[in-house]
């Protein structure tokens, strides 16, 4: 049976939060990289689900072939805009909603990817601040 420790629990989010608290030491680099990998995997999952929504939407509402649906969904999710011409009102409404959704997904994915880095920076800053405030002997 694998022995649990505080640091691996922090990476997997088993403790009171996903990240270490202010009074806890900085996570070692190896575990920080593991945490970042988990966040990257989550970001890839978010993008994959979002792409799937776009592919199915274009395929069902615009009667596009699967490859054309993939192309349109990928281009909108990537911020480039649609490639194929839209013929139905339902497809046009879907495309406008999907474009807004894709913009929000961009922000969410950026947040998921940068959260561990931003947290580590702030945590390190707070640890340095606490060191300066300790009384010297």
Write up what this structure looks like.
The chain is mainly α. 71% of the residues lie in helices and 0% in strands. The radius of gyration is 22 Å and the shape is elongated. The model has no long low-confidence stretch (mean pLDDT 84).
Give a brief outline of the structure.
With about 140 residues, the chain is mostly helical. The chain has four helices and no strands. Helix 1 packs parallel to helix 2 (about 30-60) and helix 2 crosses helix 3.
Question: What is the secondary structure topology, with strand pairs?
Answer:
Layout: H1 6-12, H2 29-61, H3 66-77, H4 89-133
Instruction: Give the strand content.
Output: under 5%
CATH architecture tag of the domain at 37-120: Orthogonal Bundle
- CATH topology value of the domain at 37-120: Helix Hairpins
What is the chain-wise order of helices and strands?
HHHH
Shape: elongated
Report the C-alpha radius of gyration, rounded: 22 Å
Specify the biggest β-sheet. Answer: none
The whole-number mean of residue pLDDT values reads 84
Q: Level of helix content?
A: over 70%
DSSP summary: helix tally = 4
- Helix and strand composition category: mainly alpha
Number of strands: 0
Distance from first to last alpha carbon: 45 Å
Contiguous uncertain segments of 5+ residues = none
CATH class of the domain at 37-120: Mainly Alpha
């Amino acid at each position: 049976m694998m022995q649990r420790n505080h640091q691996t629990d922090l990476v997997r989010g088993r403790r009171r939060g996903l990240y270490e608290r202010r009074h806890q030491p900085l996570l070692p680099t190896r575990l920080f990289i593991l945490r970042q990998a988990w966040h990257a995997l989550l970001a890839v999952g978010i993008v994959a689900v979002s792409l799937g929504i776009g592919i199915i939407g274009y395929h069902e509402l615009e009667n596009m072939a699967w490859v054309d649906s993939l192309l349109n969904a990928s281009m909108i999710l990537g911020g480039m805009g649609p490639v194929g011409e839209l013929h139905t009102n339902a497809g046009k409404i879907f495309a406008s909603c999907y474009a807004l959704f894709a913009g929000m997904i961009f922000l969410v994915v950026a947040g998921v990817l940068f959260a561990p880095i931003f947290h580590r920076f702030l945590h390190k800053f707070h640890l340095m601040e606490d060191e300066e405030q300790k009384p010297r002997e």
